[in-house]
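WARN retry 2 of 3 for item q-0093 after timeout on previous attempt; input resubmitted unchanged.
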Amino acid sequence: MSRPRFLPDNFTLALIGTLVVASVLPCRGKAAMIVDYLTNVAIALLFFLHGAKLSRQAVVAAASHWRLHILVLLTTFVLFPLLGLALKPLLLPLVTPALYAGILFLCTLPSTVQSSIAFTSIAKGNVPAAICSASASSIIGIFMTPLMVSLVLSSQVKSASAWHTVGEIMVQLFVPFVCGQLLQPLIGGWIERNDGIVSAVDQGSILLIVYSAFSEAVTEGLWHQVPPSALAAVLVADGILLAAALTITSFVSKWLGFGQADQVTIIFCGSKKSLSQGVTVAKVIFASHAVGAVILPLMLFHQIQLMVCAALAQR
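OK item q-0093 returned
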């Protein structure tokens, strides 16, 4: 029997199920400690596998396309934060401070890797450049995101310096990534042939973090603090951010004289935000009770960007 077209994909259903379970049966005490430990292990394994999967040859081959990469990085780390700050007068009366912090956090995140490349390929864009640009965004984001968050959300983050936060992220994310890159010549081929392993770890780590974060948030009274009207406002804000990014990257890439294939790459790499990297970084940057509300705008944006960009890529 064919899958109904209106039914979300399996991962989205799993995310919704995780939210429901965390709301009804949040983990507490020793169980929360065990889940937190498993989450840290899953995060390290995830970035190790991503490092081992990334082909150095493809990155080197596309790295010379510097104008494209600079435009994508400027969109990801400059345009998005400016848009988020510009929405402040509109959003603050409608959403809670934690949800607005989540929107600003979303704006500081790097681009996705898998979906940016997949949509670029479907739309017949420059796939090698997309691989290089999305990968560079992901690596740079390890350093840029905590520094930018410390500038725009200093009151929301843990009581530690930006450099201390970068140090924590390097240990949890960057060191496993580098170890994977060092072993890439030995295990990269096997991982490429067994791509389902990376996908399973990717999705499994996200579900673990979401369960852990929302368990803590529910215990702190998240759903009593977030009215339906605030969630609706977040959805509208996410839609505005995505529409603005898609429109601006489209016009600017044409204005700068990029070819059709490069325009496609800029549009899809510049408009994405990474759910997997976002939830992992949020766990390090923000206090545990605040993570659930902070990643909620990102989870909604993730689903919107997949649906909109899938339709756009087909055209």
